[in-house]
Specification:
- This protein is mainly β.
- It has a single domain (13-194), classed as Jelly Rolls, CATH 2.60.120.
- The protein has one helix at 185-194, and strands at residues 13-21, 24-28, 35-36, 42-44, 47-51, 56-61, 66-69, 74-83, 88-104, 113-117, 121-125, 128-134, 138-143, 148-152, 160-163, 167-172, 181-182.
- It has a 17-stranded mixed beta sheet that branches.
């Protein structure tokens, strides 16, 4: 249950900030007013979250899925709707820069979708646990949970890659995702440690 009277009250909530480490801010698309985030703040669709160096936050969505925002990350909640009676979820999150861990452990209802996009990649997931690391030149997707599919955000780059647990792929501008590679245990451990908030 999202508490009343917290930041951004009024719009339907996409989620709530559960934890903050360091300096993490939010602003609404089209509005330059920047607000420092704290635990308990509500986030709605259209909010851009930015974490400073050595900072991070955990955003828990209305269906208990969550994203851990790592240092130096910019993330936009484009859409997040969840109907508890049907279990239907529609989520579109954009990682413009930096790295974030997405975890969804509940099976969603018919017609649901959970999409994470960057300037290069489009990730479609159900029950999942994966990292998206985006830069201006490429996007790395590292999967540690259930299988998910990855394609280029451009419809001109044809090709979809299925990422099984402990696999990763790299997506660059206007090219299909690279064939999956195995994630070395030390890289997996580092990603998980870095994602602790």
């Amino acid at each position: 249950m999202i508490p009343e009277g917290t930041l951004f009250a009024g719009d339907p909530a996409a989620g709530i900030i559960a934890r903050v480490r360091g300096q993490v801010t939010a602003r609404k698309t089209g509005n330059e007013t920047i607000t420092a985030l704290k635990a308990g703040d509500r986030i709605t669709a259209g909010h851009i979250l930015e974490s400073a160096k050595e900072s991070g936050a955990q955003l828990v969505f209305t269906d208990d899925s969550f994203v851990n925002i790592l240092p130096g990350t910019t993330l936009l909640v484009k859409q997040y709707e969840y109907a508890a009676d049907t279990g239907r979820r529609t989520a579109v999150i954009k990682v413009s820069a930096g790295c974030a861990r997405f975890v969804s452990y509940k099976r969603s209802g018919p017609g649901s979708r959970f999409t994470v996009e960057t300037g290069h990649a489009l990730v479609s997931a159900g029950i999942s646990d994966f990292f998206v690391s985006a830069s201006s030149s490429e996007t790395e997707i590292l999967n540690i949970g259930q299988p998910l599919s990855v394609k280029n955000v451009s419809s001109l780059a044809v090709g979809v890659v299925r990422l099984d647990p402990n696999q990763k792929t790299l997506v660059k501008e206007k090219t299909p995702p690279a064939q999956p590679a195995t994630v070395p245990p030390e890289q997996r451990r580092k990603y998980l440690k870095d994602a602790e908030i």
